[in-house]
Amino acid sequence: MEHIKLKPIAVAIALLACTAAPVFAGNGLDVTGSHYNLNIIGKDNCAPVPLTGSNRHVIQVLLNFNDGSQNGQAAATLDRKNKIFLSPGDFQVTDGNACDKDGAAFTLPAGGYSVWARALAKPGGTATITLCAVDTLGTADPSDDLIVCNTAPDIVSLERKSGQPVFSNVTKELTTLTIGSTTSSLFDAPYYGYFWDYDNNGLRLTQLRFYPN
Looking at the DSSP assignment, which residues form a beta bridge with residue 108? Predict the structure, then answer.
């Protein structure tokens, strides 16, 4: 696999939240420094248009939308709501609306960073984030393409509890896809159409942080 490296200039542009981040006692982080912030906001009523812009750090999802596992589903029948479709590149939200029929879109490098997640906002609410992709099953006919997804324990589970929110390292869960005994990195062949499936049960805010290694 050809990894996309974080070049110094690209990092300066892409990691727009580039102030040093000190480690606060009890917040779960064991890294500091420049990073990219992505906030996933649960909304009862989302904006009716695509949310685009090179400086965007927010993706809207439906507050209460959980369509279960997509594993084994025909790719052609996928409901794209609360799906964040991934493509290689510098960190950038290219469509911040996951509430519509097109889903959201986010570019990120294939590797070279760690990913940290925490649940924010008022206590209450849970969500899961699952990395999925499309499997061609070795044929050129797209009609038989199936969705494959991580399964437990390789799914990110978030819950906003009372007290100080704590980060968890979710690099493995959000950047590697494990199917049976085979693990593939983000954007590896033979899969395509990688996405995060965000099932939300009332969680109003998830924050992801991406730190260069």
Answer: 88
pLDDT tens track for 32-64: 899 999 999 999 988 776 677 667 899 999 999
State yes or no: pLDDT of 12 exceeds 80: no
Full-model pTM: 0.86
Residue written as tokens 């982080």? 29
Token pair of 9 as six digits: 């200039």
Which strand (E) or helix (H) includes residue 9?
A: helix 8-14
pLDDT confidence of residue 79: 96
Burial class (CB in 10 A: 0-12, 13-18, 19+), 107: middle
The type of residue at 93 is: V
pLDDT at 54: 63
What is the rounded end-to-end Cα distance, in angstroms, of the chain? 18
Neighbours of 4 (CB within 10 A): 18
Contacts of 44 (CB under 8 A, 6+ apart): 63, 64
How far apart are the C-alpha atoms of 56 and 91, rounded to whole Å? 10
Three-state DSSP class for residue 109: coil
Q: CA–CA separation, 100 vs 91, rounded Å? A: 22
pLDDT tens per residue across span 121-148: 999 999 999 999 999 988 888 889 999 9
Provide the greatest CA pair distance for the chain: 53
Q: Are strands 58-62 and 36-43 parallel, antiparallel or unpaired?
A: parallel
Could you tell me what percentage of the chain is helix, strand and coil, using 3-state DSSP and rounding each to the nearest 5?
Answer: 10, 40, 50
- Name beta bridge partners: 148: 133
